[in-house]
Amino acid sequence: MVNDLNLLKTFYYVSLEESVSKAALKLHISQPAVSQNLKQLESEIGFSLFVRTNKGVKLTNEGKEIYAYCKGIFKQLELLNQTLQDLSTLEAGILNIGASDTICKYYLIDILKQFEEIYPKIRYRVTNCTTNESLNLLKHHDVDIAFVHTPVPNDDFNYLNCLLLEDVFVCSYDFDDSNINCLEDLTKYRILLLEESSHSRKVLDSNLMKYNIKLKPKFELASLDLLIEFCKKNMGIICVSKQYIEKELNSKELKIINIKEKLDTRYISLAYDNEYISNAAKKLLEFIEK
């Protein structure tokens, strides 16, 4: 029975090099220490492992059997150490991310493109889901980090605000919005909104309640991209973060309706658990902070 792994390690390197002196150099210990380790190992197992010759050492038949096992063990250990080194320096590994389609399209793609230029060997697994679903995945450690819309009624995690979002009401560029000056005026027009269960819709409804306004949408859609397309076709007024429609505003497909009341700002935020965060996730967090 061998309880000291260092004895087997000494045996492995002496077998590999067929020399006590060469093994000592590999192990960074003295030749007498190598000889002593071998003597102790042979004493513990009760039989000889080597035949000593003028040219070095040769394995006995029993030694060859033990070496076959040790070779597999220490090769795997070398691979493990290399993997640990790669993970520590981000030369390998997987970063698991939870994020909605909207956040992926309008924010995350650009961030990951820049991050990948610094750490090209990292692999990514992105789970597309809503803010609430992303936080649930993070809670159960199914993702390392989550990109979500905040504020959220959840203080189980840490949040790093990444991108400020300004919600505005917009319409097709050709739509006559001259008679819309306040939120109350919107109740007289066709409104298109995200479905009621979405996080963005809940935030909007909460905002409107502060002004005693409740909008009854003509259409409710699950996709922000579809909502924008409907609006471009002059199907009605939508509420959307200005940062998500910069292209449409610049191309004059959409325009912002000037309303005196201001909706609360919100963020795309990175949610993480301080007690359970991978090295790759830490590096991404640090990258975004900079």
How would you describe this structure in keywords?
single chain, 290 residues, alpha/beta, 5-stranded mixed beta sheet, 11 helices, 45% helix, 21% strand
Provide a descriptive summary of the structure in words.
The chain is rod-shaped, with a radius of gyration of 32 Å. Helix content is 45%, strand content 21%. With 290 residues, it is an alpha/beta fold. The model has no long low-confidence stretch (mean pLDDT 90). The strands form 3 sheets. Strands 4-3-5-12-6 form a 5-stranded mixed sheet. Strands 9-8-10-7-11 form a 5-stranded mixed sheet, with helices on both faces. The protein is built from 11 helices and 12 strands. It has helices at residues 5-17, 20-27, 31-45, 61-88, 101-118, 131-139, 183-186, 199-209, 224-232, 246-250, 279-289; strands spanning 50-53, 56-59, 94-99, 123-128, 145-150, 158-165, 167-172, 191-194, 219-221, 237-241, 254-256, 266-272.
Question: By helix and strand content, what is the structural category?
Answer: alpha/beta
Give the integer mean of the pLDDT values: 90
Query: H/E element string?
Result: HHHEEHEHEHEEEHEHEHEHEEH
Low-confidence stretches: none
Major sheet: order of its strands? 4-3-5-12-6
How many β-strand runs?
12
Please state roughly what percent of the residues sit in beta strands, choosing from under 5%, 5-15%, 15-25%, 25-35%, 35-45% or over 45%: 15-25%
Largest β-sheet summary: 5 strands, mixed
Cα(first) to Cα(last) distance is 54 Å
Radius of gyration: 32 Å
Shape: rod-shaped
Q: Which percent range fits the helix content?
A: 40-55%
Number of helices: 11
